[in-house]
Amino acid sequence: MKTNEMIPKSFDRLMGQMRSVINDAEKLLRTSEKQDEDAFKKACATFETTLDNAKAELDDMEDSVVEKVRNAAHTTDKYVHEHPWNTLATGAFVGLLAGLMITRK
Asked: Which domain holds residue 6?
């Protein structure tokens, strides 16, 4: 599915943004040591932009995950309502297996 492919790409982009945030923070710290006001302001602006991009990427990823969870919950609810006996039998079988596994130890 196309939506399943989005999470790894979004995650990779987010990790790239986080690496950029860390790199920019390190540059900001090095620049502050030199106490060059113009360079420090430029480093602050770069850091702020990178941080804003990382926040936006995280928000997009969160929205995507929430939407997928909602879709999965809706699909599960629909299946349970359309096939109640199958769901009941499956649940009972899984419960039986879990009980057997627990009692074996």
From this structure: 2-104
